[in-house]
Specification:
Elements (H helix, E strand, L loop, with lengths): L2 H6 L15 H12 L2 E11 L4 H15 L10 E4 L4 E7 L5 H17 L6 E9 L5 E7 L4 E5 L11 H10 L23
Antiparallel strand pairs: 1-3, 1-4, 2-3, 4-5, 5-6
Helix pairs in contact: 3-4
């Protein structure tokens, strides 16, 4: 970054650091102790869909790679599309297999990146819930290399539990690289696993 960039307030974008995903299992321990949330066993990677055979081939390869895991419980990895036109590659494990789920999320992101589709990656999310039925997603922003909590409220309309999100932010500040710009805590309505 040059002197002129500093004067004009330009910053270089943060490079994605997929290894940040591996901090999720230890953060889950802190999250359970601080707020009573445990993993659901579901995680997903969200990306902007691209037309073309290379993109379709990459998706098939990633799904085949993850489906080949003999330790997988439940249905195979599936591709879903949300109401906004984004694609989600969903992985399901048992709740005690969070490290394996994180490996799945990392593998999907890495495969997309290696095959030239890094710009289409938006976020990855791991689902959590508590005994009171509240839901929480820890969302990793690919382009920022940071996490943020997303806590949708049940009931009519699209509302979120902002107080819970801030509580989780404070609890996980030492475990995860938390996104400090709250304006980037985008809602992921209808995300698989929530």
């Amino acid at each position: 970054m040059g002197f002129l960039d500093i004067l004009l307030g330009r910053t270089k974008p943060v490079a994605p650091d997929l290894d940040q995903l591996f901090a999720l299992p230890s953060a889950a321990v802190t999250l359970e102790a601080a707020a009573g949330f445990t993993p659901t066993g579901t995680g997903a990677v969200c990306f902007a869909t691209v037309e073309g055979s290379a993109f379709s081939q990459t998706n098939r390869e990633v799904q085949a790679l993850l489906d080949a895991d003999t330790d997988r419980s439940g249905p195979p990895v599936e591709l879903q599309q949300d109401d906004y036109g984004y694609s989600w590659l969903v992985s399901r494990r048992t709740p005690d297999q969070l490290p394996s789920l994180v490996n799945d999320l990392h593998a999907v992101n890495s495969a997309m990146e290696v095959n030239g589709f890094g710009p289409q990656l938006l976020c990855s999310m791991a689902g959590f819930h508590d005994a009171r039925g509240r839901r929480l997603g820890l969302v990793y922003l690919y382009k920022r290399g940071t996490f943020y909590p997303f806590a949708p409220l049940t009931g009519p309309g699209q509302r979120r539990d902002n107080a819970l999100e801030l509580q989780v932010k404070a609890a996980l500040a030492d475990d995860l690289r938390i996104e400090q710009d709250l304006g980037r805590w985008f809602p992921v309505w209808g995300a698989p696993g929530l």
